[in-house]
Write a structure and sequence with these properties.
The complex is a heterodimer of chains A (about 300) and B (about 350). Chain A has 13 helices and no strands. Chain A is mainly alpha-helical and about 300 residues long. Chain B has a domain of about 230 residues. Chain B contains 14 helices and two strands. The longest helix of chain B has 28 residues. The chains are: A mainly alpha (about 300), B mainly alpha (about 350). At the A-B interface, helix 4, helix 10, helix 12 and helix 13 of A face helix 6, helix 7, helix 12 and helix 14 of B.
Amino acid sequence: MDWGSLNPLSLVATMVVASIPIMFAATGELVAEKSGVLNLGVEGMMITGAVAGFIAALETESQVAAIAAAAAAGSGISLFFGVLTQFLKSNQVATGLALTIFGLGVSALAGQNYTGQAPPQFSPPNFGPLGDIPILGQIVFGYDYLVYMAFLTVLGVWLFLNFSRAGLVLRAIGENHDAAHALGYKVTRVRLLAIMFGGATAGLGGAYLSLIRVPQWTEGMTAGAGWIALAIVVFGSWRPWRVMAGALLFGGVTLLQLNLQAVGLEINAAYLSMAPYAITILVLVAISARRSGKSADTPASLGKPFHSSA
Amino acid sequence: MIRLEPRLAPSRIWSFLAPLAAVGATLVGGSIIFSLLGKNPIDVLLTIFWSPLFDPNMSAYARPQLLVKATPLILIAAGLAVGFKAGIWNIGAEGQYIMGAIAGGAVALAFYPAEAWFIFPLMVAAGALGGVAWAMIPAALKIRFNTNEILVSLMLVYIAAQFLAAVSLGALRNPEGSGFPGSRNLQYYDSASNPELLAGTGVHWGGMAAVAALACLYLLMRRHIMGFHLRLAGESPRAARFSGARPALLVAFCLGVSGGLAGLAGLFELAGPSGQISIDFNVGYGFTAIIVAFLGRLNPIGILLAGLLVALTYIGGEMAQFMLGLPRSAIQAFQGMLLFFLLAMDLFLHYRIVFRTGAKA
């Protein structure tokens, strides 16, 4: 084994990079769940964003277009879920699964001619002299635009949920949709917007995978990242900063596993590849073991259908 | 103005009409996708739904394939239906399918090359147990810690897939396979193989098991107190508790049954049509079976018909891929769309649509 090849600075940087897809997706799902909607279609929205961003990047060579396409595609496909669950009152669990199956199929269809191609390289933001600062330059100022967008999304969601009137309304709807409805808030409209926001961020998370992290397009390339994002929301107790921390932690685990493979530890690579999923299970168990019954953190109306009788 | 009025009881007519309407809507939606891909939608639909069954050149190959593909779908869906009725969501059937196949396959390979009558029954038992064991992980965590079974069962699919890769390259690799990944082919090992029972039909022991599973599903749901508790738990967990249902038992039962049937499906597929443990052994039956269970409205006869229909889209999809150059993934999108439309049609089951003018009196 060659532990010397592990450079602590680049480890931090790759940990951040590895956490971004899940951070994006989990933050969006957090908003949807705070409004009382359980969308299990994160995986489907992510992969749709991944393929849309990839195609847009190849066709336009424009970073802005790629990012916009990924967000729009994720958001667009989330509307299927939104319309079905909000207007047609379908079961949220089943509809989320349908969204995942559909998203995997549609993305494979859309991306069939793009497999194996390399996406254009986008230049990261230039922080000028800041980037030359030792240590900080690498672990703070050395990333792509999407990385900063992910952290800003977490910050924005935190500010929105805690310090804005609209955020308060959204949380009220998630806690008790009947009471919120009685107060005159538009339950269905707010939830639909929350679902679309979740779709957009999941799309961005997917695009980060296909454009920067991997970077290429292959069918089913999200490989469960969307499901892990769902687990991270639970892990983070529906709080933006904790969700961010969960995503970073998870990035660390992924990275550790990849590095262990790289240094040639005497374990079959397949067993190491199980690590992220096994650790997600352990985290879920740890979280649920700590709570008895339904936690106070869980939005009270989560997953329940809303029907206004008036 | 259009208004939704909840029905007191689900509409009986719509419970029959909804799947048909969903299939109809999917045909229309699919036609749009096929046209966008630059294919003539009528040609594609005929290739998918007609030629596998009735085209003289194709049907000799395709008809047996119908039952080969429908068998695992029906077996898995029958198990999933039990849990879905009770609101217990095992979506990791794909993982249980893999583990069942590995467990059963390991038994066969342990006996190789001995020939004995008891090897195949032992494999069947091991296959079911493998699936049950894998499903007991989310069940135990759900019972003990109230951990979400959806996420755990799904994570276990990825772990099972990695395990499959590990054993195909390692413990179960064919020692005479000149280094290629994958186990010995059980089709050439008489005591362990699961051959076609009637030549040209595609029926193997799995088909028998699928029919038996559907019969048991019917008896369980309609004739046994457990089925009553399961249905009650799905509609109102509180009422179920008052009627004497034990939630922990229900969780273990639902995951156990669905895991066991998925494991069986994996074993029969391994010993039969597939033949060997290899990295690409699983092809997504565990996920597609979710669609089959819903399309069949969680009802035995419905699941039988739904399994055949979805199997037809697989075979027809292969033909359309071969003859018309339709991408393989188009069928996956088609199946996903089918599930969307089905769920949308549930609206009519639970709500009455009222057209009215003016305000409520």
